[in-house]
């Protein structure tokens, strides 16, 4: 089992092999994603939406990201793990950004970090890379700038916006990124950016012309039936599957059919005496295991 590295991704770009990235936030889902052969696991600040229930990613803290990165790193063995740098963990200054990126690696077990923004953040990217930490860029619709963008809007629809995204991508490549997320970008623009840079691009809502694709795991599993953006495909009606299982459990508990005999532990039959010896009172034989 060979670990996915920055060199793996560079090779995929050269050979035209698509890159697969999925988000995960805990050890159990990370193990499933890893076993499924996914290349990259993004511990995204999207957990603000799907785990914490916020309306944006802005409330997510660095300590929370480190916590979830550490959980994912214990569940995945092959995929590369990328830790998202949350809002205000890199915007305040280059030194602070390097320190915080280092915490995601040292404490969170990530192998790379991702941060949002284009030319304005090339200095931050360069300094983190010089510290020995791989950086994944992220341009287009950048959720941490939702207020500046005026909402979640598709980017690159005008000629000037198209050129700005190209300039951002090239500047980030020069600063040292090893890959680039294109989110909410017109497909023609994303394809042009992909052709213009040597690093692999990973799209979400950016068409099929990118070098790879990413989706939030809760979204592709269909766990939120109210979230139906155009770019999203449900690969499972997870909401109904899980709700059905929980409803069945509840029904069996209420009717008394669970737990059944095969789910029940019993004490060994012993002879009761009036004054047992201390060792006899403790019982004998091997202890019954609760798990396994």
pLDDT below 50 for ≥5 consecutive residues: which ranges?
A: none
Write out the strand line-up for the largest beta sheet, numbering strands in chain order: 1-2-3-4-5-6-7-8
* Number of helical stretches of at least 4 residues: 12
Helical content (DSSP H or I, runs of 4+): 25-40%
> On the 0-100 scale, what is the average pLDDT?
94
**CA-based gyration radius:** 24 Å
Based on CA inertia axes, which overall geometry fits? elongated
Secondary-structure element order, as H and E? HEHEHHEHEHEHHEHEEHHH
- Structural class from helices and strands? alpha/beta
| Percentage of residues in strands | 5-15%
- Biggest sheet architecture: 8 strands, parallel, barrel
| Counted beta strands | 8
- Gap between N and C termini: 27 Å
Task: List strands and helices in order, with pairings.
Blueprint: H1 6-15, E1 19-23, H2 27-35, E2 40-43, H3 47-50, H4 62-75, E3 80-84, H5 94-106, E4 112-114, H6 122-130, E5 135-140, H7 146-149, H8 159-175, E6 179-183, H9 187-196, E7 201-204, E8 212-215, H10 217-220, H11 238-255, H12 278-281
Parallel strand pairs: 1-2, 1-8, 2-3, 3-4, 4-5, 5-6, 6-7, 7-8
Helix pairs in contact: 2-4, 5-6, 6-8, 8-9
């Amino acid at each position: 089992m060979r670990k996915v590295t920055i060199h793996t991704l560079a090779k995929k770009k050269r050979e035209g092999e698509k890159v697969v990235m999925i988000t995960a936030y805990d050890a159990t889902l990370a193990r499933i994603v890893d076993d499924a052969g996914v290349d990259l696991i993004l511990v995204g600040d999207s957990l603000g939406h799907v785990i914490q229930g916020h309306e944006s990613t802005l409330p997510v803290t660095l300590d929370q990201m480190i916590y979830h990165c550490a959980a994912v790193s214990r569940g995945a063995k092959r995929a590369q793990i990328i830790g998202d740098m949350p809002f205000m963990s890199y915007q305040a200054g280059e030194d602070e950004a390097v320190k915080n990126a280092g915490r995601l690696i040292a404490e969170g077990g990530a192998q790379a970090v991702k941060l949002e923004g284009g030319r304005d953040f090339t200095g931050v990217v360069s300094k983190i890379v010089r510290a020995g930490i791989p950086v994944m860029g992220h341009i287009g619709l950048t959720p941490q700038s939702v207020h500046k963008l005026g909402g979640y809007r598709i980017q690159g629809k005008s000629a000037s916006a198209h050129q700005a995204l190209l300039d951002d991508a090239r500047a980030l490549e020069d600063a040292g990124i090893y890959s680039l997320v294109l989110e909410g970008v017109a497909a023609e623009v994303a394809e042009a950016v992909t052709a213009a840079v040597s690093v692999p691009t990973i799209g979400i809502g950016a068409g099929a012309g990118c070098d790879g694709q990413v989706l939030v795991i809760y979204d592709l599993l269909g766990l939120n039936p109210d979230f139906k953006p155009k770019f999203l495909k449900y690969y499972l009606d997870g909401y109904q599957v899980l709700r059905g299982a929980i409803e069945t459990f509840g029904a069996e508990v209420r009717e008394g059919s669970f737990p059944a005999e095969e789910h029940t532990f019993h004490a060994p039959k012993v002879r009761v005496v009036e004054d047992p010896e201390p060792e006899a009172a403790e019982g004998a034989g091997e202890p019954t295991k609760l798990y396994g």
